[in-house]
């Protein structure tokens, strides 16, 4: 009975404890629910946040001017698709690194061929750009490609890329970049068809390679033998042919430009493949010239001043430009003991035409040398001529001079020295010098003295006759005396030269005519001077001496 009482007490105690625990449970549950719910909320928020973010990429730029972490954005087609989270400069390295957090659905931007650049207000060859960033601040723009290879690090561009919906790329080589820059336009027949995408200095430093893009459908106009030239700036050419002025569009003048065209006479165009390389000429005139065969170096020596003859001056053969001057200098001639002017030039004999090439044969240089010797024997000479007197520009002319002194040419010596003849102006100067020398050798002083003495004696004779002649004869003597007095006055002038001598001789001729008229009158009327003359009045039909003197 005692044991049953103990078991009953135990059951009562257990029930009491359970009841007590149940009484405390609502308060304990409320205490743990709040932090548990907060933890669950944080986990859910973190999962949702991670799920709403895209990948993080890093872009390297030369400068981060205008970019701010947390404010600057990444835009694709002007739509925000990410945000800059960090901007840092690397120690010991040039440039900056920019971390960008992409949006959830922008995983396609984190691929190999995506391009990034900073948009800020700038003035370039294409005009003003990035004006929308004036208010919003600088931002990063993106352009997608076609790759699917993932990438997390990129190198940003310095300028916006070219929109390449269709077209071809070409590489141009030039000695100088000129005014061309990235974004400079490319023209065909003065219509814009593409632009410059980049350039780089050659490894040897002897030239510049320019990358250009020509958009479709204009790329089909780029022939495999297309001629390219610098089309920016004002082209002023002043040479022996005169002055030529080329004025491009205002955009090309300010930003520089390139242009291309098909070769002259090309009936059909064969489109150049992508990546074709071309050479760039300085202007359209140089670009359209026929490609030159290997040049033949030639030397000419002149005995006159070479003022006005510059490097690049043309070498002309009856209107055909055979080459150009490559060097101008002096050379001491030991045999003559004198200094001559040496002109070196590059000639392109193939420009003489098909017949000349037929005579040469297929690379037969002996035939060309024999032909040159024949031409020199027939009078082929070089001559310095003035092409543009206003600009004082000269050129070298090759022509045939059949009456030139005999000369020969040594075709086995390089460079070949062609004989020359004096220029037209040089010959004229020599002739004028000869005439001046002949005049200087004339005894003009003695002639003037003798003529003056003759005039004095004649004047004395007139004075003597004046006292003895009749009045009618005195009129003729008066005219002759006036003429001789005028001639004598001319001879007495200070510095009398050839012109005064000519006028004196003219007066002397008039006096002679007057004397001849007077002699004729005296022969017909001797009574004018005879003391026993019956009359001093001439007949009515007798001519007046004054009219005869005229």
UniProtKB/TrEMBL annotation:
UniProt keyword list: Cell inner membrane, Cell membrane, Membrane, Transmembrane, Transmembrane helix
One Gene Ontology cellular component annotation held by this UniProt entry: plasma membrane
InterPro entries, alphabetized: Mce/MlaD (IPR003399), PqiA-PqiB_transport (IPR051800)
Residues annotated as transmembrane: 29-48
PANTHER family: INTERMEMBRANE TRANSPORT PROTEIN PQIB-RELATED (PTHR30462), INTERMEMBRANE TRANSPORT PROTEIN YEBT (PTHR30462:SF0)
Source species: Burkholderia pyrrocinia
Alphabetical list of Pfam families matching this protein: MlaD
Domain Mce/MlaD intervals: 53-116, 167-225, 297-399
Protein name from the UniProt record: Mammalian cell entry protein
Biased composition (Low complexity): 531-550
Domain of life: Bacteria
Residue segments, region Disordered: 528-550
Localization of this protein: Cell inner membrane
